[in-house]
Amino acid sequence: MENEKRLYGLNLLLSMMVLFLEAALALVVSIVYDETQAAPTPEGTGGSPLFVLFLPVLAVIGATFTAAVSLTLVLPTAWLSDALGRRFAGREAWWCVPPVAGAVALAPVGTAVALAGGGKPGAIALGWSLTTVTIAVPALLCRSRRKRIFGPVLLWGVLTVVVTAVLGAAALSTGLLKEYRPPAVTSADLVGSWSDGNGGTLTLTPDSRATGSGLHADLGYGSTGLAKGAPSGDHLSHDNDNDNSCTGPGTWSFEPGPDTTAQRVEITVGTCGFAPWSVGGTADRLTLYQYVGDPDAPDLHELTKAPGA
């Protein structure tokens, strides 16, 4: 019985379980990695108790996705690997799985690159490598003739996720991995020219005066901000309803706060009033940012200080 092939349906369930575990591991790694990056994180998001109501929906979506990946990528990889092993090695060989998985991974990675309009070679290579591993691991397990495999795979998979989370938290708390903190700034550091990356500019002077030009106006959920891209609606009050921008003189002030994460910059331009801006970036590349829109899925609006300004 130990050498009999597992039923196709059981292999499908095994593959789906492994893909769920891989997704959980990827989530843990991404959370730890994000803590080390100079990327602003929206405050107060994802904490609604109503989130539990969406868990069944997320479970259905996850099951549908993992089933689709299993049927289109994982199980065909396992079958093709066995076929090639018998054809060229005279037996089913596990080492056929990685190269076949790499070839199969070209399809989803190539599609993603095409939809994105291209990408950097390094990012494409990393995406292909991760996709190859994602396909190869469940494909290898689906080839196993062991009858009792679901329990051990689930146990070791959950243990791997938990250990990774504990090690990541320990590395961050001990400083082995450096957790990102915004740079400490003074009012003098904020003086200069800023850009929203879309043609809009803001100039802050030492006498607390501000001058804006072509800054897009957005107003949503009681928050206001300078949009990095094109506005999605009427998000801020401004001088001319036919001119969706904030242009003109204004004022600004800086509040250092008790720590660097609490640093805030108040800005007004003409009749446009903005919610307080947070300080981000690095010491040599300062940014001002805020989130606007849906609190559960906010849009990042960011200003970057011009080099040498």
How would you briefly describe this protein structure?
This protein has 309 residues and is of the alpha+beta class. The chain has helices at 8-35, 55-88, 97-116, 121-142, 150-174, 187-190, and strands at residues 192-195, 201-204, 209-220, 223-226, 245-255, 264-269, 272-273, 277-282, 285-292, 299-305.
For the structure shown, list the relevant keywords.
single chain; 309 residues; alpha+beta; 6 helices; 10 strands; 43% helix
Q: What is the overall pLDDT average?
A: 84
Strand coverage percent: 15-25%
Largest sheet: 8 strands, antiparallel, barrel
What does the overall shape look like? elongated
> What are the segments in which pLDDT stays under 50 over at least 5 consecutive residues?
219-243
Return Rg in Å: 26 Å
How many helical elements? 6
Q: Given the helix and strand composition, which structural class is it?
A: alpha+beta
Report how far apart the termini are: 74 Å
Helix content: 40-55%
Q: Tally of extended strands?
A: 10
Task: Tell me the series of helices and strands, N- to C-terminal.
Answer: HHHHHHEEEEEEEEEE
Strand line-up of the largest beta sheet = 1-2-3-5-6-8-9-10
